[in-house]
Write a structure and sequence with these properties.
Blueprint lengths: L7 E9 L8 H11 L3 E5 L9 E7 L2 E9 L4
Parallel strand pairs: 1-4
Antiparallel strand pairs: 2-3, 3-4
């Protein structure tokens, strides 16, 4: 019998386009408000840009990957 819990992974994408925040500032504030300060930052593997990062959080047995998309300049 398999007693391992399934690997639950959740993606959270925060979209915004107002203001002139520093990159990731809005996402950090959002993640700290929702999940607390127990997150860690790492580069996104799918992008060649070092500026693209994700914040990872462990929350109630799930891995939560948080991303920010700032669209005002597009």
């Amino acid at each position: 019998m398999n007693t391992k819990k399934p690997n639950n992974t959740i993606a959270v994408v925060l979209l915004h386009g107002i203001g002139e925040q520093r990159p990731m500032a809005t996402l950090r504030n959002f993640v700290e408000s929702v999940f607390g300060k127990s997150w860690y930052s790492k580069p996104d593997r799918l992008s060649e840009l070092f500026e693209v990062r994700r914040l990872d959080v462990k929350f109630e047995g799930s891995n939560v990957h948080c991303y920010e998309l700032y669209w005002a300049h597009i």
